[in-house]
Amino acid sequence: MAIRTPCTRLSKSALSSISCSTSSPLKCAALPLVWHVPAQHRSMATVIPPVTQSSTSRNGPTAMVFMNMGGPQTVNEVGPFLSRLFADADLIPLGRLQNYLGPLISRRRTPKIQNQYAAIGGGSPIRKWSEYQAAEMCKILDKRCPESAPHTPYVAFRYADPLTEEMYQRLLDDGFGKQGRAVAFTQYPQYSCSTTGSSLNELWKWRIRLEGKEPEGGGVRWSVIDRWPVHPGLIEAFAQNIEAQLETYPAEVRKDVVLLFSAHSLPMSVVNRGDTYPAEVAATVHAVMTRLNFRNPYRLCWQSQVGPSAWLGAQTSDTVMAYVRKGHTDLVLIPIAFTSDHIETLFELDQEVIHEAKKEGGTGVKRAESLNGSPIFIGALADVAERHLRSGEVCSRLMGIRCQGCKSERCLEQKRFFMNTDRDVKEVIR
Questions:
Q1: The sheet that has 258-264: what strands, in order across it?
Q2: Among 6, 254, 382, 404, which is 20 to 30 Å from 425 by CA?
Q3: Positive or negative, the Cα torsion across 372, 375, 377, 378?
Q4: Which of 180, 128, 137, 178 minimizes the C-alpha distance to 157?
Q5: For the chain, what is the radius of gyration of the CA atoms?
Q6: Residue 58: predicted pLDDT
């Protein structure tokens, strides 16, 4: 079912609890339309009015679509959320038994995960933060990029409301189906086939289902921001949050506090296929440590392993306990692959890892604040988007090359669609 109410609108109480102000010296010049979109024919009977362009906004309006995993807003939404998550072979590959094992695992895990969401207040804050970040970014873009204004915020979650299909139907209801411009902006700064790749596969699927292969009027004109792991604003936002947490330690021990960067792990089957995620996370960590002048010892570790198969390690929980037992009781955990708080930070890190460490004597184990409403971070989002809009590119060069061991036809077709399927692109992504 399509959602007719805006997916990106926050309650007045939520907005009043958050503040953000961002400015930039950058100005946006005219944004040339250089993307090639083949002529197509719409198969749906409903006539949708096209989006309109004013004399001061020749290339607008522009839909800015934030893509992320999402999370249940209530305890009752946990079951459907897990069902979608374990059905996704891009994220959790279970082989030929996916359709059998996925529902079985999700049903068994639902009561436990419901208790975890109850422990953090009854639901995930990721929708609140995603909607707020997208809305604030679009306000900045409207000022800095009048040529592509107005910029309209949308949110598309992979496993929770608002789902990709709900967002896409809203795009069509808003008139973007007549050559309207939309940017799929991943909120995973580091690319993985399991996260951004899965979201793009879903977006491509619903484009075919809702618009058809040859939509009348050309359909929505998509471009993609598929990765941004070392953007200076992202690095600055992380660095400032780390510095703020380091200030809570006594001056005499501050330089010896160990920084533990924690990212969501991946199955080794995905890593060995050639997924770029581990390298891009490492690049983010190195950029942050460069900004901090390598003042503290640090390590990268991985969290949220699911099931008995081999996952990328070392695991965050094991790493923290190992260091505490070795006498390193002052540690700062940094969620380096997440752009806001959710279950992995509020429960797994705060209530499991840190709680267990304190029981072992790790009284100095803390966590750096998540990016959430950071003005620096929201300014970075706007800068990433502005550079993309001004470039006229449909995606990064890296998106055009598949993982070495990739055999997914769906991945191939998705890349061909988003890169406009000309012959040169096909040759690159085979």
A1: 298-303, 258-264, 330-335, 364-367
A2: 382
A3: positive
A4: 128
A5: 22
A6: 64
Q: For the segment 240-276, what is each residue's pLDDT rounded down to a tens digit?
A: 999 999 999 999 999 999 999 999 999 999 999 999 9
Alpha-carbon distance of 297 to 340, in angstroms, equals 25
φ and ψ at 285, to 5 degrees? -60, -45
Q: What is residue 33's predicted lDDT score, i.e. its pLDDT?
A: 32
What is the token pair recorded at 351?
């209530």
Interatomic CA distance for residues 332 and 96, integer angstroms = 41
359: tokens are 């029981």
Sign of CA dihedral 144, 167, 342, 294: negative
pTM of the model: 0.84
- Nearest Cα neighbor of 303 from 368, 359, 269, 347 is 347
* Other CB atoms within 10 Å distance of the CB of residue 236: 18
Helix (H) or strand (E) run with residue 84 in it:
helix 78-87
CA distance 36 to 394: 9
For helices 232-246 and 375-391, what crossing angle results, to 10°?
170
How many Cα atoms sit within 13 Å of 270 on the Cβ side?
Answer: 24
Residues annotated catalytic, as ranges: 383
Contacts for 228 with CB less than 8 Å, ≥ 6 apart: 189, 234, 384
